[in-house]
Each structure stands twice: as C-alpha cells, then as structure tokens.
Specification:
Blueprint: H1 2-9, E1 19-22, H2 24-35, E2 42-46, H3 56-67, H4 73-79, H5 89-109, H6 124-136, H7 139-149, E3 171-177, H8 184-200, E4 210-214, H9 221-224, H10 226-237
Parallel strand pairs: 1-2, 2-3, 3-4
Helix pairs in contact: 3-4, 3-7, 5-6
C-alpha cells in the first residue's frame, strides 16, 4: 500500500511498466502484484520468499538482539525493544550495534565465491559500500523491517480476498543469485514459479511466470553481479 500511495501522491501515471524489488522489496513487489495488479504491468521479485520461512521469526529477533547488545531472541520475542531500553540501550544500538549487525549480515549476503565476498576481493569496494549502508540504517527502521519480515504470508488472500496466484498482472519475473542461501533461495523461487504457473497457465492468454538465476551472485545480485543483473532486467523489461 505504501507503493500505491507514492504512485498516487506523486501523480505517477499508472499502470507503471514494472515494480522491482529485492529481499524485503521483493516481498513488497509480490504483495503489490496480489493487491494492486491494476497499477503495474509487471513485477520483478529478487532474492525473496512469498512467506516467512520456518525459524525466521526467531532469526530476526536474534538480529534485533545483536543490535541491542546480545539480547536473546526469546527476550526480544517476549518483550520487544521496550522503546530502545532493552539490552545495552538505544545509544549502543546506534553507535555499536548496527556495525555489529553489518559485520554479520554483509558476509552472509556475499558468500564465497562472490566477487564481493570481502573488502579485499575483486569488487571489494561494493562490499564496503553495502557494509556502510547497513551500518547507517536507522535502528527503528531496521526493527520495523525485521518485524515485517518475521511474520508474513503472501499465499494468504489480502483483506479484499485477492490472492497472489489469481493476480491478472501481465508479466512476472523472479530472480535469485545462485549463491543466496546456498542456492535455497533460488530453489524456493523456482517452486513459487511452478506453483503460480499451475494456476496462471490455465488461462491461455496469460504469460508464464519466469525465473532467472544470476551465477556467482549472492543475496544482492544487482551489487556483486550488477552487469549481468542489468542485462537480465533490461531483456525482461524490453520484452513487452
């Protein structure tokens, strides 16, 4: 709904050609296809999932706990962040905690043999750029995003009864870096493609959902393999 609000507020003519998102943005693009298919001709959803994976609620709580100085996932799930007064407090979270989160998160996003795997790797300047971006993320924004990702399910109908698989959207492209989650993110998106097409392709006029994998890329293929990703995106967007 935030995307729909921006399109309306900024007077952007609709339908737009595409809504493109990665990770949480990928989930947002899937949700947009479900609820606002009349506002875009297509979506591109990258390195994401249609719902929170088992165990991820605890994982996100654990990441929040890292930011606040080693608070357990159990405490975060039970008590929340208490207005920033949990653990070592809000000041620690800003000055130290987000750096610690970046130190855990960015290597996971760019696993070996990504060319962004380390600061001294071939594309190490991109690694550092993303690291600093995570480090500068407002703590409240991170906590809100983590909360959203810890409990969602786009297989369910929205509050208007609209479902993802019945969306009349014209085109859908799912993209994953081959290294993301050890290949599991791509496998999950391929399952989503197949499940979606089981319904979508019953209509002969509907274009099948597509899937593309970016070799050698991690969670952010538009960073560690930006050139290849741009080619994939351009070919898709120029195709209609």
């Amino acid at each position: 709904s935030d995307i729909a609000y921006l399109l309306s507020t900024l007077n952007i003519p609709t339908p737009v050609h595409a809504i493109v998102g990665v990770s949480q943005g990928g989930a947002a693009s899937l949700a947009f296809a479900r609820t606002f298919p009349h506002l875009t001709r297509s979506i591109v959803a990258c390195d994401t999932s249609p719902r929170t994976a088992p165990g991820n609620k605890e994982a996100w709580a654990g990441r929040i706990g890292v930011v606040y100085g080693g608070v357990s996932a159990e405490e975060i799930l039970k008590e929340g962040v208490k207005g920033g007064e949990v653990g070592k407090g809000a000041d620690y979270a800003v000055k130290v905690g987000m750096d610690k989160l970046a130190g855990i998160t960015v290597p996971r996003w760019f696993g070996e043999p990504s060319k962004c795997a380390r600061e001294d790797s071939e594309r190490g300047e991109r690694y550092r750029w993303i690291y600093e971006m995570v480090e500068r993320t407002p703590v409240d924004g991170f906590v809100a995003g983590a909360g959203a990702l810890s409990d969602y399910d786009l297989y369910q109908a929205d509050d208007k009864g609209q479902t993802l698989f019945s969306s009349p959207i014209e085109r859908v492209l799912l993209v994953a870096g081959s290294l993301d989650g050890g290949g599991n993110i791509g496998k999950g998106l391929q399952r989503l493609r197949d499940e979606w097409n089981t319904v979508r392709c019953q209509n002969a006029s509907s274009k099948a959902v597509e899937y593309m994998e970016i070799p050698g890329a991690g969670h952010l293929p538009m960073i560690d393999e930006a050139e290849h990703y741009a080619d994939v995106l351009r070919e898709f967007l120029d195709g209609f």
